[in-house]
Specification:
Blueprint (H helix, E strand, L loop, with lengths): L1 H21 L6 E14 L4 H22 L4 E6 L10 E7 L9 H12 L2 H11 L3 E14 L1
Antiparallel strand pairs: 1-3, 1-4, 2-3
Length: 147
């Protein structure tokens, strides 16, 4: 029985290789979801202040985006022992695909107004957060799903 199961497992493992061999120029990957990574450096003494904001307004915003279908998931990653000029937090947001970015400005502003009540207020709050953190950059990536 053990030899039968081992033989079956080896046979099934060979199927993908045989499929690739049939068309060696076929891609060996498919396009996956899109991830946006924002690099954040908190100001000395303000890490907890910023994380408190993340656990409140930012998380509420991300959940609203998720419920609306604009994003698939989100994460907050802590950088262990960041070196000088490196971020101490990374905000990761997963989008289902690149088409998620193809929304009109009118639609985006209407959704933001629904979330924040006033674009002017949202902009003022964004500016105020500049005193407790610095956005160091942003990287947009697409996940590669290997076949």
């Amino acid at each position: 029985m053990r030899y039968l199961l081992t033989g079956l497992a080896l046979s099934l493992a060979a199927i993908p290789a045989a499929t690739r061999a049939a068309d060696p120029e076929a891609p060996v990957f498919s396009k996956g979801p899109v991830w946006d990574f924002t690099f954040v450096r908190t100001q000395d003494g303000h890490f907890d202040d910023y994380v408190h904001w993340l656990a409140g307004q930012w998380q509420d915003q991300q959940e609203a985006f998720k419920k609306a279908g604009y994003i698939s998931n989100y994460k907050v990653l802590v950088v262990a022992d960041p070196r000088k000029d490196e971020p101490d937090l990374i905000l990761a947001t997963e989008y289902p695909n690149m088409a998620a970015f193809d929304r009109s400005a009118d639609e985006e502003y209407a959704f933001q107004k629904k979330l924040f009540g006033s674009i002017k207020t949202a902009n003022q709050e964004q500016a105020a957060r500049g005193s407790i953190r610095t956005i160091q950059g942003d990287i947009l990536t697409r996940e590669m799903l290997l076949k």
